Each structure stands twice: as C-alpha cells, then as structure tokens.
Amino acid sequence: DLYVGGTEHAVLHLLYARFWHKVLFDLGYVSTPEPFQRLVNQGLIMGEDGQKMSKSRGNVVNPDDVVAEYGADALRLYEMFMGPLEQVKPWSMKGVEGVYRFLARVWRLVMEVDDEGVWSVSSALQDVPANKQLTKALHETIKKAGEDIEKLSFNTAISQMMVCTNAFTGAEVKPAAAIVTFLKVLSPFAPHLADELNARIASKFPALAHPGLLSDATWPTYDPAALIEDEVEIVFQVNGKLRDKARVPIQATKEEIEKIALASARVQEFMEGKPPKKIIVVPGKLVNIVV
Fold this sequence. Notes:
This protein has 291 residues and is an alpha/beta fold. The chain has helices spanning 13-26, 63-70, 72-81, 93-110, 132-150, 154-169, 176-186, 191-204, 254-262, 265-271; strands at 2-5, 38-41, 45-46, 89-90, 111-113, 119-121, 125-126, 174-175, 231-238, 241-249, 278-282, 286-290. The strands form five sheets. It has a four-stranded mixed beta sheet with strand order 10-9-12-11. A two-stranded parallel sheet has the order 1-2.
C-alpha cells in the first residue's frame, strides 16, 4: 500500500519492484497494475554542518552513540520531530537534547525522586478523574496524533503531545487513568518509556494501567464533546498589574465576570480595602480594576 524511500530509489529498487510487478500483472499472477498505491520520498538527513553525511567530511552521526547517551526513544522521537518527512533536514544534537528533556518531563508525570536519588511513583499521581482542561487537552491530542499519523505528519503529532504534557505537568494532581491513555498515544513514538511508565502505574493502580504491552492496546477514541471550548481564562489586574486569573464560562456577562474578579482573594489583597474607581472588562481576556 505504501512505499517510503529516498529519491535515489527511483531508478533502483522502486524501478525494479514496479517492473517485476507489471510482469506478474501481465502474466495474470497479481490483480493490480502497480505494486504500491502511495509513494512517499523522505528527505535526506544532513550532517550538523548542513552537508551530506560522509566519512571524508567527518560529519557522520553514529546512531549507536546517540542511543548510548540519550536512549533509543530519544533517537526515534527526534528523527520524527525534525520536520516534515519529505524535507531535507540537518541533524542537530541540541535537538536530540530537547527531545530527551521532553521525555524526562513525561517521566516526571508518573515518577518522583527523593533526596537520596531514589525514584518512586509520584504522590501526585492519583485515581481521580481529569478536570475539564486536562480532558480537553488529552482528547485534542488523541484526535490530532491519530490524524497526523495517517498523514505521516509525525512532527506535528509530537508537538501536540508536548502541549498535552505541559497541561499534565501544570496540574497539582495527576489523574492516573488519563495519563495511561496519553501513554497509549505516546507508545508508537517512544515505546520503551511508555511501557515502563505503564508498568510503574500498574504497581500502584493495577486496575487503571493497561495489562501487557501498550503496543497491543487499541488506539484511544476521542470524545468530540470534550473538544468544545465552553470556558475561557480571564486575567485579573489591579491598576494594570496582573494579580490573579480564573476560568469563567465563555457565555458569562460582564457583570458576572466583574463579580468573579472582585471575589478573588488576591484581587482583594491588592485593592487594600479601597473601593474601585473604575472596572474595565474586556470579554474573553481581562478585567482591570482601578483603585
């Protein structure tokens, strides 16, 4: 169905494969005139100097060295994150380090380290349902990653997973079941880390973790209702300076937003008991209280 190869294959393997398939088609042994329904030419990966990798230039990257220092998942993920599959791209060790740091953030969603350097399942990981913001981020990730995989747009799928990881990182309590679902999405990209974290979750929440390997799991289904944005984050200012923020219903009136802002303990602290001279409400964005 799909042939992925470099442009140099056009007059080599691809040509031979098509020739022999057409011979077999003419003889009646196969039912299709072409062996492949879709052709994708992946771009060349250049050296860090922007030149084609060669031993004479000394710019060849040995993947074994990358795996030894950063792990197989980081190498695998970086190759997919470099850019669109079809483009020519220069190798960058800083890019590998960036992806490695992302995987470290995923690790810390589940694990924590004590003063003696011993890792254990994080106390923030709990058997609780995900809130509305985390549910939205998760289902956006399931949807986009699934669609991007079909389009071979791996780099944008990984970008969305980074957004989702940031959302989980910002939560004080990490919902274990939602993170297991996220690991199922991450698994095709970083299988070793995903399975290791699933096993760690299973040690604390056996009913929530996926039994066996995540590669055998069914791809998660996103809920269209979870993608609907019905709340917006409003920042609260006192005399033009940011003092607090809150999520309010997107349909909230100016009067309702004013009440929420004035009820904020942080806002009251900086108002210092003074009555507001003026309240400026920019729907969907901010409230500025002038005292």
